[in-house]
Q: What sequence folds into this?
């Protein structure tokens, strides 16, 4: 598990607050600690870019909340 200080510093440094950002920070910290190259699929590139910088390649994914689509009759 990542050390709490780097995770907290990442959140505080970018003025991100709340449980959503705490989870993002833990995921970012784990990605940063992996041997390079690292690619992360995320639906929130902006926040992850703040936390990971250029150390992790971020790939945007689109989340379809209605998949699989089934037509109602």
A:
């Amino acid at each position: 598990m990542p050390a709490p200080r780097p995770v907290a510093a990442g959140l505080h440094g970018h003025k991100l607050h709340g449980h959503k950002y705490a989870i993002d920070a833990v995921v970012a910290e784990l990605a940063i600690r992996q041997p390079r190259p690292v690619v992360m699929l995320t639906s929130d590139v902006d926040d992850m870019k703040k936390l990971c910088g250029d150390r992790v390649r971020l790939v945007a994914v689109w989340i379809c909340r209605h998949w699989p689509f089934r037509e109602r009759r």
Observations:
- The chain has one domain: 4-60.
